[in-house]
UniProtKB/TrEMBL annotation:
It comes from Candidatus Enterovibrio altilux. This is Sigma-54 dependent transcriptional regulator SypG. One of its GO terms (molecular function) is ATP binding. CDD domains: AAA. It comes from the Bacteria. Residues 92-321 form the Sigma-54 factor interaction domain.
């Protein structure tokens, strides 16, 4: 925190010295009311924020909290992007901060033998994550064996994991290697592990602890070298509390927790992934789709995506198969996306609107052109009036106003909230 009025030297000189030395710190200017313009100029020279005297405790806490959070996030992003840009990563598409954190955890966990417990909603890419860990690990050249514990009948699950000998049960006409033997030297991924039968969980716990197992119907123990990864779309602790998942197995597996974010929390990744799917499927189907209309982008970005990336993938394939053109319009979106807006709202987003005549640039900035004294309104006032006019024209619908203004809806919501709370 740097005051401008100091007894022995100027705060400006200290700011220049700090920047010249490249000291790793945020700089907050403290200034009296008459020096606000000076403080703004100093921010252009490298200061991060300013406080106006007298400084209130709440304003001080808010400023310090914001700067500390900014520094934390900046360090996180810097650590991740030191050597490369993470727009894609081992099958993942997306550069949002939540995904950058996922990539960082994979980088840190992959080289070890530690078990990784992947959690996330259905469709978030848990198997993609497990395969990324495998491919980033020293075992990348060995086998990656995925096993979905929720898709295999309970009475066959033990055989799927450990294999069986000939005659072990009805239909076992020959000896069979299980996933454990197939994954030897590599990685075994147990998806939806909370669906596993309790009796089998006990055998799995011993297998994880010792690396030894017996085939179903066999009498000889075999040993393997396996890296275990597991995943679930449920809350594992809730399953433990409900008695459906062994507590000792949970703590054996719960070494590194990796929580995949739902698609709705991945910011602009939605449009990046959708565009990638669009171009891929268009090439497969011999279509010419290249992009989404602004209205379609708004709907895609604000839909909740309960099925996450898997649902988005199916939606884009549906569009490409059933429609033609270079640009996906909002009317081409399948249910339930086309049900998020009424027919009237869809029409207003896709059909050119004819509001009141737009003022000339001279009128927009408020320059007097008659005998009045020449004056110019601030850009902030012009922007605020344009946004408020668009929202009023759309009957308070911020989503539609954002489409007409060709800006992100989050920008309008943020500015509108700032005006209403008096923070702007």
């Amino acid at each position: 925190m740097l005051d401008l009025k100091l007894p022995d030297m100027s705060g400006k000189d200290i700011l220049r010295w700090i920047k010249k030395q490249a000291l790793p710190c945020a700089i907050i200017i403290v200034t009296s009311h008459g020096s606000v313009n000076t403080a703004v100029k100093l921010m252009q020279q490298g200061a991060d924020d300013f406080l106006e005297k007298p400084v209130s405790a709440e304003r001080l806490k808010t400023t310090l909290t914001n700067q500390l959070e900014h520094i934390r996030l900046q360090h996180l992003v810097d650590d991740i992007t030191t050597n490369f840009n993470r727009n894609t990563y081992h099958g993942f598409i997306g550069s949002s901060l939540p995904m950058q954190n996922v990539y960082r955890i994979i980088d840190a966990a992959a080289p070890s033998r530690a078990t990784v417990f992947i959690t996330g909603e259905s469709g978030t890419g848990k198997e993609v994550c497990a395969e990324a860990i495998h491919n980033q690990s020293p075992r990348a050249q060995q086998a990656f064996i995925p096993l979905n514990c929720g898709a295999i009948p309970h009475d066959l699950m033990e055989s799927e994991i450990f294999g069986h000998v000939k005659g072990a049960f009805t239909g076992a006409s020959s000896e069979r290697k299980g996933a454990a033997a197939q994954a030897n030297g590599g990685t075994l991924f147990l998806d939806e592990i909370c669906e596993m039968d309790l009796d089998l969980q006990k055998k799995l716990l011993r297998f994880i602890q010792t690396g030894r197992y017996q085939k179903v119907g066999g009498s000889r123990e075999e040993s393997v070298d396996i890296r275990f990864l597991c995943a679930t779309n449920k809350d594992p602790l809730h399953e433990v509390a409900a008695g459906r998942f062994r507590e000792d197995l949970y703590y054996r597996l719960h070494v590194v927790l990796l929580a995949l974010p739902p698609l709705r929390e991945r910011e602009n990744d939605i449009l990046t992934i959708a565009t990638s799917f669009l171009k891929t499927y268009a090439q497969e189907e011999g279509k010419i789709f290249l992009q989404f209309s602004p209205a379609a982008e708004v709907v895609l970005r604000h839909y909740s995506w309960p099925g996450n990336v898997r649902q988005l993938q199916n939606v884009i394939r549906n569009i490409v198969v059933l429609h033609d053109g270079e640009e996906v319009s909002v009317t081409q979106l399948p249910p339930p996306l086309n049900e998020t807006l009424s027919d009237k709202e869809i029409q207003s987003l896709t059909v050119p609107l004819h509001p009141t005549p737009i003022a000339s640039p001279i009128e927009c900035v408020g320059i007097a052109t008659s005998g009045e004294e020449l004056s110019i309104r601030s850009l902030e006032d012009v922007e605020r009036e344009a946004i408020q006019h668009a929202i009023e024209f759309c009957n308070g619908n911020v989503l539609k106003a954002a489409v007409l203004l060709k800006v992100s809806p989050s920008t309008l919501y943020r500015k509108k909230q700032a005006w209403e709370t008096g923070e702007a």
